Amino acid sequence: MIRDSKNVIPFSLALLLHVVIFGSMIVAFDYSRPQPFTPLAMQATLVAEIPESPPPQVVQPEPEPEPEPVIEEPEPEPDNSEELRRQVEEEKRRLDALLEQERLEKLRKQEEEERRRKEREETERKKREEEDKERRRVEAERKRQEDIQRQREENERERRELEAEQRQAEIDAESQRLAAVDSGQLAVYQALIQQKIYRNWNVPASAMDDLRCSVRVRQVRGGDVLGVSFLSCNGDEAVKRSIEAAIFKSSPLPDPPQAGLFDPNILLNLTKQQ
């Protein structure tokens, strides 16, 4: 049995065992994570059989133990899922804010357009109302002027007709009066009035024998006396007052024999009765 005075064989076996264990751990770790596999460099020492005859003893310096190989473990990838989630949420909030801002701006524009539309409609409505009001006013004024003109024409027509009737009545009355005058009826009418006045006249003592007074008497149909005026009179004031009193006392005056003889301003000549 070969003796290893330098403990080379146990050291080599221990080193190989460590390498195998560490390699198994790396393989297991790589299988647990889907990472590309990187082969590891392994160092091994070949152990050759020593012949039975011992070689010449050569005194060699004891080799320094080789340092264990440093195997660099792959750095774990940083877990940035939280940062990504935060970025996604931040981007979502930004997009939501933009969408909300666009929605509010669109809503504001719609409200502004609706307000302007209502203002235009209100302005047009008021304009139509003013136009209708002005049109009705013009139409009412036109009708009023037409009514006034029509009333004027009607009044003028009635006035002309009335004047024509009055002229015709005056003509007829004058014709009747002239006919009555020619027939002596006017003298009879005046004599009836004078007789009634003489009956009611208290002649004053100052009245002269040649007294003559021309008097105009205003009367209405039916003989009621309205007034007395002297055209000429040679008597004094007492005589005039007595004649005026006698005329008013004789009211109503006698009716004419014919209607055409009625005169609202009848002329009488009064003298002192003997």
Report, as a whole number of angstroms, the end-to-end distance. 222 Å
Radius of gyration: 78 Å
Order of helices and strands: HHHEEHE
Helix content: 55-70%
Q: How much beta, percentage-wise?
A: 5-15%
Entry keywords:
274 residues, mainly alpha, three-stranded antiparallel β-sheet, 4 helices, 57% helix, rod-shaped, disordered N terminus
Give a quick precis of the structure.
The chain has 274 residues and is mostly helical. The protein is built from four helices and three strands; from the N terminus they run H-H-H-E-E-H-E. It has a three-stranded antiparallel beta sheet with strand order 2-1-3, covered by helices on one side.
Describe the protein in words:
With 274 residues, the chain is mainly alpha-helical. The chain has helices at residues 8-32, 81-183, 185-199, 237-249, and strands spanning 212-219, 225-233, 265-271. A three-stranded antiparallel beta sheet has the order 2-1-3, covered by helices on one side. Strand 1 and strand 2 (225-233) form a beta hairpin. Helix 3 crosses helix 4. It starts with 7 loop residues before the first helix and ends with a strand. The model is unreliable at 1-5 and 36-51 (pLDDT under 50).
Give the arrangement of secondary structure elements.
Blueprint: H1 8-32, H2 81-183, H3 185-199, E1 212-219, E2 225-233, H4 237-249, E3 265-271
Antiparallel strand pairs: 1-2, 1-3
